[in-house]
Amino acid sequence: MRFRLPDPALKRFITAYYFVEVPAGPAGAVEDLLHPEWANIRFVLNGHWSLRLDGQLYDPAPPAALFGPTSVTGTVRGQAGTVLGIGLLPLGWAQFFKAPAAEYADRVAPLAQVLGERAQETHEALLSAGDDDARVAILDALFTAMASAGGAPDAILVRAHDLLVDPTMGSVDALAQALGVSSRHLARLSLRKFGFAPKLLLRRQRFLRTLQELRAHPGEGWASLIDAWYYDQSHFVRDFHRFMGMSPSAYFALPHRLLGPAARARMAALGASLQGLHAAQADGSVLSNSAE
């Protein structure tokens, strides 16, 4: 796992560029889970990659793919190859694409559906590039041009995003009041820009905050780690089944051959181990329980 930061002017739109490499060898294919997260773009540079998400199998995964925002886990499988990913923040989705995020929620689509010919042109340029630096330069140029064409970012979207990842924000009514909009307006904004209804988003964020804490403090009792918006441990366990499709004990018993290195590399480079916890701050910083 290798993480690279985008050009500083793009940090409002992109969390990071990342390279996932499975080496050839006796280990064969590597399989792991994806957590619920914001949207991503992924380019297959080589190897065979597949994904199962929300009951749909993508085998092989599109060579240039748009992964919409997710509220469920996915199972990714890679064999002797490399994928280059781009983590998009909600502001990035709004700046780069015209389609409502809800149209792509919990699904994967060919990148050409939203970028047209640019998708294949960019993929070919990335395949021809000699190293990580050259590929980062290609992506910086692409997204800088797209950001300039997208006009001024929507201030209410930035505010809504930061409120969603604020651990003190726990209800839809409070979120609408903080934004100064009606609940109906908030629902439309949430579906179009974030992909899901605000109630589900708030639920997803408290789950991710707790998951990050549990992963960061293995062996500690849950009572001091679960989010303050959970009534008790059984409440969190129900959410775990909702978002990950399994119990916490089953999840933590898995080897996490992709997620483990990814979490450590992401934390070191970006300050959060889960992409869904990144906030809409221009300096690229994040909010998490440990940083409150």
Can you walk through the features of this model?
This protein is α+β, with helices and mostly antiparallel strands and 292 residues long. Helices cover 41% and strands 19% of the residues. Strands 1, 2, 3, 4, 5, 6, 7 and 8 form an eight-stranded antiparallel beta sheet that branches. Helix 8 (198-216) crosses helix 9 (233-244). It is globular.
Name the features.
292 residues, alpha+beta, 41% helix, disordered C terminus, 8-stranded antiparallel sheet
Short recap of the structure:
This protein is 41% helix and 19% strand.
Distance linking N and C termini: 27 Å
**Tally of DSSP helical segments:** 11
Give the helices and strands as they follow along the chain: EEEEEEEHEHHHHHHHHHH
β-sheet strand percentage: 15-25%
Number of distinct beta strands: 8
Give a short account of the largest sheet: 8 strands, antiparallel
Give the proportion of residues in helices: 40-55%
Low-confidence stretches: 282-292
Radius of gyration: 18 Å
Main structural class: alpha+beta
3D shape: globular
Mean pLDDT: 90
